[in-house]
Every structure is written in structure tokens, then in C-alpha cells.
Amino acid sequence: MSYRSLLRAAGAGFFPLGLLARLPYATSALSTLILLQTSTHNYAFAGLGGATQSIATALGGPLVGTLADRHGHRVVGVVAAIANFAAWAALLAASLTGGRQGMLVAAALVGLTQPQVGPLVRVHWSRLLHARGERELLPAALSYEASADELSFVAGPVFVGLLTSLSPLAPTIATMTVIAATTLPFAAVYAHPAPHQQPTAPQEKPRLPRRPLAVMFLAMAAMGAVFGSLQTAVTVYADAIDEPGAAGLVYAEFGIGSALAGVACAWLPRQFTLRARYLSFAATLCAGMLVLFVGARLLSLPAAVAAASLTVAPYMISLYALTERLAPAERAAVAMTVLCAGGPLGAAVGQAVSGSLAQSYGIDGALLVAFTAAAAALLLALSAFLADRRRNIWIVDATVVSGA
């Protein structure tokens, strides 16, 4: 079985520690919003701080990836975890003193120093399985990682919500504790050390394929816009039924469905090529968001979310798999972090646009943004697919296992 083989390859301790190590990323946005709103009693400022942090995360991710490719995942992961802990401490201190400029600067530093566990651990799997001669396990590893990401984003808001009932400072303090107890040890124990490579001439340095990586970035941004608009939709839904806690429950339902679909992707047939997967799952994502839009009107939002959630993880896994295949091994970390940078940027746009439409059209306005983003993702996949068939310049027509 694929997952049993992954357990042998990585070791039992890798999985629980790796799952907890990414939890601070899943709690950071909500923890920051709660902390800043409590300190200033101003939702607009809290939203500005959250947006600042999201943009900084998108900008800082490729920087962390570049440094990891150059100096090794271990040293960069450890330094990033320590720096992120210090940035959270600065944000907490600024919130207690009430300095708004200091809070914005600290929020930006939290985003810039994000350890990037999710992208880098995917590179770890690629290198580990290549070194062991078990590349055929990579689809299962990427499926597991997608499910782990979704579970962390289910657990994160619940974690923050429970702690907020104790104190608005508790989520931030808990996030710092998790960084020190799991993110830092995970980087120190499991991350790859600095590569031992012979110096190469400048012209021999491998380059990232800019066009295909731009396609992947935009594809992930579209996925982020879906997430952002759905977050708005469930918030409107919870307000409409006068049950504030319903927003978290419905969004958790979305994450659980996506995680289950991600686990199932490990058993897709090997003859199902990466290019075909990308196009097929972009189409199913678009169909899923159409079901979400129509189903929320005809049935109920929770029922529509349950159906649509199954189309998310397969699409995201195809993006990770394509990025892993097209990036040179020496630049894999920066490629993954560039891909992931599209998520928070797309989410910020999705939240802004859907929030504006929801003000006038309610849930329908927010969900229309989700469907539009998914349709844009499908059009992008179609254009890339046709360009590839015409010129064969951005991804090989290869099976997941055998390569080109």
C-alpha cells in the first residue's frame, strides 16, 4: 500500500510532527485579526493588518525558498522558525502597547518570516523518494500533503476559536508555543542539510521555467480566490441564520471533504498523465463551484459545500505535481514557494471582491466570485494544454511514474 510505504520511507515521527509544524500557518491570519481587533477595537485596522500579513507571506515565501535552495532546508527552516517566533513576540508586544504602526510592521514580519513548511516538505518528499529509488510513491506523498494541509486549515480556526474564549491573547501565545515545540524541531530533525555541490559557472546555473511557473502561480491564485470568496459566503450565511459559529463549521466541512478527496488521489492510475490531470481537475473544480452556486440556492449552503469540497484537493495536487516535475532539482524549493505565493494573493482578491458583492447580493454574490475564479482556472488550463500540444514547451506528456 502506498501510504504504508511512505511510513517506512519517512519514519513514524515525521507525520505527527509535520502535521503540527504547519499549524501556525493555518492559525496566523485569524490570530492576527483577533489580536489587532482586540487591541484597537477597529475592524478596518484589523483587516488592514491581516491583508498586510497575507501580502508579506506571498512575498516572503519565494525568498525563503531561494535561501533554502542555496543554503539547505535545515538551516533556513530553523532560522525562519526562530525569526517567526520573534515576529509574533513583537506583534504581541505592539498590541499591548497600542502602537498601530508597530503592529503593522510586526504583522508584515510575521508574514515575511513564515517558515513555509508545506512547500518545503513537498521538496523533501521529492528528494527523499528520488534518493531511495521510490519515485513511484511521489503521487501518494503529494496526496498526503494536500490532505495534511486541509486538515490543518480545519483544525486551525477551531483551535483559535476555542482559545479565544479563554483570552484574545491566547491564540497568539499558543501559536508561538507551537512554533517552538513543533515547527523548529521539525526543521532541525527532518529538513535537508545544505547541499554539497561543486561550484558552477554562472551560465550553468539552472533557470526556472518562467512561463510554466507563471501558469502554476496564476492557477493557484485562482484557487486562493475560491477559498477567499467561500470564506465570505460562509460568514454571510452564519450571519443570515444568526449563528456565528456556523461559519467555522461549514468551512471545516469544506476542508474535510477536500482532505478525503486528496487521500483518494494516491490511487489514481499511473497512466493518467500530469497534463491530463491538470486539465481534468480544473474542469471538475469549475463544475464543483457551479454545483456550489446552484446548490446553495436550490438546497442549502452546507449541502452544496459538501459536494463541491471533493473537487478542490485533486486540482491542487495536480499543481504541486506539475511544479515538482518542471522545476530543476536545485531550484525546487523556490518553485514550490512561488506556486504557494499565489494562494494568499488570490484569497485577498477573492475576499475583497466577494465582500463587495455580498454587501449587495448576499451569498449569491460571494459564490459567483468562486465560480468565476474556477472558470478562469479552467480557461487557463485549456490555454496551457493547447499551447503545450502545439509547441510542447512547458510540460512533457509523461506519466506520473515514468517521466519523459
Automatic annotation (TrEMBL):
Topology with respect to the bilayer: Multi-pass membrane protein
Pfam family, any one: MFS_1
InterPro entries: MFS, MFS_dom, MFS_trans_sf
Keyword Transmembrane helix: yes
PROSITE patterns: MFS
Domain Major facilitator superfamily (MFS) profile, first and last residues per copy: 212-404
Transmembrane segments: 45-68, 75-96, 169-192, 213-237, 249-269, 276-295, 301-322, 334-353, 365-387
Keywords: Membrane, Transmembrane, Transmembrane helix
Protein's cellular compartments: Cell membrane
Highest taxon of the lineage: Bacteria
Protein name listed in UniProt: MFS transporter
Organism: Streptomyces cylindrosporus
